[in-house]
Design goal:
Shape: elongated
CATH topology of the largest domain: Udp-n-acetylmuramoylalanyl-d-glutamate--2,6- Diaminopimelate Ligase, Chain: A, domain 1
Number of helices: 10
Strand content: 15-25%
Helix content: 25-40%
CATH class of the largest domain: Alpha Beta
Largest sheet: 6 strands, mixed
Structural class: alpha/beta
Amino acid sequence: MTVKQLYEYIEKILPPRYSEEIDTDGAQAMPHPDREVGRVLVALDPYRAAVERAISGGFDVLLTHHPLIYGEAIEGTPPAKWLDELNGAGVAAFSFHMRLDAAKDGVNDILCRLLGICNAVPFGDEEVPDLGRIGTLDEEVSLFELAERTSRTLKTRSVKYSNCPDKKVRRVAVAGGATTDFIAPAAALGADVLIGGEFKHHAWGYAEGQGIALIEAGHYHTENPVCQRLADIVRSADAGVTVEILDYSPFTAI
C-alpha cells in the first residue's frame, strides 16, 4: 500500500464532512505519495517528540489526531519548522481532527465505552451537531463516584468536578477536548453531567445555572485513547505495516 492509498483508505472511514473551515486536518505533508508504507507512527499530537521519533525511527507516516498546522503555516513558528523537517525527511503527516471526534468508534464513542455509558447517541451544537455523545449509566451514582471512575479509567491525576459531589447522576453527556460549547445542548437534552476535556472558567458558573454538573478530565486524557483506534485503522488497511503508538504528553500533573 502506498502513502497516498493509505490516506485515501483512512479518509473513507473518517470523511471530512465534520471538519470546520479552520480545521485544516488531512494530509499536511505527503512528499512521496507513491512510496510503499512500511512504518506508521501514531500520536495524539504532532509535537517535537513525535516529529523527532518519526524521522529518527524511519517512519513513512506520522498519523495524529490534532493537526500540525491550524490555518496557514506561519514561517518561523515551531509547527512550520516541524513540517519542513518532515517533508525534508520524506515523512508524510496525516491528521484527523474533529471528524475523528464525531465518527463512529471515534473519540467520544470510545469515551462512552470506557466509562460505561450505554445507548449513546450523537449530540452537539449548531456548528457540529454530531460531535458529542449522550447516554445513560447502568445505575445512578454520585457525581463524586463518576469523577473518581473517570480519573481511574483515563489514568489522569487531575480531575475537576462541580461543587456538588453528592448529586445523583445517570444521564451523561461526553465530548472530548474543549467542551464549553456543549454545556447548553447537553442540559437541554436532560443530561445530569457533562464530561469533557477542558472548560473555560465562566463555564462552571454557567453550568450551575443550567442545572448540569461538569467533570473536567483533561484535553489530553479524554482524547489520547483514540490513538489505538487510529492504529487499528492502519492495520486494517494493511496488516503488514508496522504501527507504533507514541504515548507522549507535553506536561506532567501532580
